[in-house]
Specification:
Elements lengths: L15 H25 L1 H4 L5 E3 L3 H19 L6 E2 L8 E2 L7 H6 L1 H7 L1 H28 L3 H12 L2 H6 L11 H11 L6 H39 L4 H25 L1 H9 L29 H7 L16 H17 L2 H21 L3 E4 L2 E6 L2 H4 L17 H18 L5 H15 L9 E3 L5 H4 L12 E4 L9 H11 L13 E3 L6 E3 L5 H12 L7 H14 L1 E7 L11 H12 L3 E3 L2 E5 L6
Parallel strand pairs: 7-10
Antiparallel strand pairs: 1-6, 2-3, 4-5, 8-9, 10-12, 11-12
Organism: Micromonospora arida
Protein name: DUF2079 domain-containing protein
InterPro entries: DUF6311
Length: 610
């Protein structure tokens, strides 16, 4: 941020004794950040291949599949952004989904070496660690002089309630290390004489960010746009902003050209390619931030463990604010103290930060306000801006994630100012220490909840499936693969990452067309076979099968070109226990008596039925 010391000049060189202290502080921050990253993910480290995140095993399975598929696509010369391996016969446009292409390519050797689940865990842990370290680097080298201030600010941002919440399997949203890099390179565009190089670097970084966390990049761009506009229009900065504007715009132009060239195909797929859609498969009213959530405590925190957590989020992965009343009070106090002691240029920065926090807080409330779980009739600004292209695909609750870095910056700024000021009265120092402790200690993260996950059948791991599926043929587990039944993509990820070959599956966990009013939906439009198996697995009651039902199921088999239907002894349900016995009875009624092959029940579909 343009503040003193600025991103353009950086802090003054330290004296040798100070350099030793700074290096010691750097090491402490690295160790603390690493310890917290491992602590938060510790439940998975017990055995990455058999454990899953309790509240979001479906997204974990999806990201494991993306890692396996992306690595397989690159090493086999396939298209990493569109596939017919899932959602047979229509395929899936991965450019409108979360592809994490860069991660899939960079970590492909590791995925082949240790498997998708372990690679997923490595990336998740590194995301948290890197977010803390890159924010610490930005703060300590460009924004504040005190390493303590930089450490507190960076660690808060990296392990804020929203980041810990999204650590429940979101490899895209936990890639928070991209944000400080984007900030750094954006403000580097002010430098005279370097607009071409700086624009080129930022353009490449934008392309990388799009390929890891497109929605996060969009939010970051919006936030930086708001900050720069408010900062530049402040009377104290107008002369500086006017002088820097030509160079800044030239750099942005280069950024747009470079990013546009690198992302031309993904953007075409996103907006004009097959299987595209507009909007999102999620309800923006449901996925909006409750006003009371800002003052609540998150569940995966010391306060949450003490029983103070709430269920104000639509699900445990979307606790995007949840700062608690003590931190909200401390943030306001920090802002007031900084404002009172600030010169006009620092006030301009504070004014921009305050506006940014308020705007994104209000936008996160979604189309209509909710208070303590009760929906009101009060319309919110997002009701208007949410109709705009691209914005209509965003979940408003996630806009609250922008507020956490603002809070972290204010905490860092006030600590930096306190340490630079003459020694204060001991009671004042104790008051500040107590305030920070009361605000931050309750938010210390606790480990993600994990459970044992049903194993991948030996039928898949041994490669036996290749005896029952033709090359590029279609196999399906029952229930058919969707978000709440992720086994099909887990099996496929294993086969791809262990170089067993390819089999396609109907359905899958993805966003695609088919929702109301042309909007997207999660997974394929249900057909008779998928509905029957879902009913049996969910309720434990085998549905009544008639001749008409069998004809509809045979039509589904032909539509999907299914050769083999497989029922594992243990089926993973992401939201509930699955009744395998009811599935076996239903499959027998539809397809006849099954074969027992390795550790699965199997039905081979005659060519006439497919």
């Amino acid at each position: 941020m343009p503040s003193s010391p600025s991103l353009a000049t950086g802090p003054a060189p330290a004296s040798p004794p100070s350099t030793v202290r700074d290096r010691r502080a750097d090491l402490i921050v690295v160790l603390v950040a690493l310890a917290l990253a491992v602590w938060v993910t510790s439940g998975l480290w017990r055995d990455p291949n058999t454990r899953t995140i309790t509240v979001n095993s479906s997204d974990q399975a999806l990201f494991e599949w993306l890692l396996a598929f992306g690595g397989h696509a690159v090493t086999h010369g396939d298209n990493p952004l569109f596939t017919y391996l899932i959602n047979v016969p229509d395929g899936v446009n991965l450019a409108v989904n979360t592809t994490i292409t860069v991660y899939a390519v960079v970590f492909a050797p590791l995925t082949y070496l240790i498997g998708p689940p372990a690679t997923f865990l490595v990336i998740l842990t590194l995301n948290l660690l890197a977010t803390a370290l890159v924010w610490y680097w930005l703060l300590s080298r460009h924004l504040v002089r005190s390493r303590l201030a930089a450490g507190v600010g960076a660690l808060f941002i990296a392990y804020s309630p929203g980041m810990v919440s999204h650590a429940n399997a979101h490899l895209n949203w936990t890639a928070g290390w991209l944000v400080p890099l984007l900030i750094w390179r954006l403000f580097a565009l002010r430098r005279a004489g370097h607009w071409l190089r700086d624009g080129l670097i930022l353009g490449v970084l934008v392309a990388v960010a799009f390929s890891i966390a497109a929605e996060g990049l969009f939010f970051t761009a919006l936030a930086l746009g708001v900050f720069v506009a408010v900062w530049a229009l402040h009377p104290a900065n107008r002369v500086e902003a006017r002088a820097a504007l030509p160079n800044f715009l030239r750099g942005l132009g280069v950024t747009a050209v470079v990013a546009g060239v690198l992302l031309s195909y993904p953007l075409w797929l996103h907006f004009a390619g097959p299987q595209r859609f507009h909007g999102t498969g999620f309800d923006p009213v449901i996925h909006s931030e409750d006003i009371a959530a800002f003052a609540a405590f998150p569940r995966r925190s010391l306060a949450g463990e003490a029983g103070l957590g709430t269920s104000l989020a639509p699900n445990p992965t979307e606790e995007n604010s949840f700062f608690g009343i003590p931190l909200l009070v401390l943030t306001v106090v920090c802002f007031v103290v900084l404002w009172r002691r600030a010169d006009p240029h620092r006030r301009a920065t504070l004014w921009a930060l305050g506006a940014l926090a308020v705007i994104f807080t209000v936008l996160s409330f979604g189309p209509v306000a909710k208070v303590d779980g009760r929906r009101t009739d009060l319309p919110m600004p997002f009701d208007l801006v949410g109709q705009l292209p691209v914005v209509n695909a965003a979940l408003p609750a996630r806009l609250a994630l922008v507020v956490a870095p603002v809070v972290g910056l204010l905490l860092a700024y006030v600590i930096d100012q306190l340490r630079a000021a003459p020694p204060q009265h001991r009671s004042t120092e104790l008051a500040w220490l107590l305030g920070f402790a009361v605000a931050l200690v309750p938010l210390l993260p606790t480990p993600l909840l994990t459970d044992e996950r049903e194993p991948i059948p030996r039928f898949i791991t041994s490669g036996t499936w290749r005896d029952y599926v033709s090359p590029d043929g279609v196999l399906t587990p029952v229930p058919l693969t969707v978000d709440i039944y992720p086994d099909g993509q887990r099996w496929q990820a294993y086969a791809l990452s262990h170089r067993q070959g390819e089999f396609a599956i109907p359905g899958g966990f993805f966003l695609g067309p088919g929702g109301p009013d042309g909007r997207g939906r999660i997974g394929p439009v249900p057909r008779t076979l998928s509905a029957l198996m879902d009913q049996a697995g969910r309720t434990g009651l085998a549905p009544i099968i008639t001749d008409g039902t069998i004809r509809e199921v045979q039509s589904d088999l032909r539509h999907w070109r299914i050769e083999t239907v497989v029922l594992a002894d243990e089926v993973h349900g992401a939201k509930f226990e699955v009744d395998e016995a009811a599935l076996l009875r239903t499959g027998t009624a539809l397809f006849g008596e099954p074969q027992r092959v390795d550790d699965v029940w199997l039905w081979r579909i005659p060519p006439a039925d497919r």
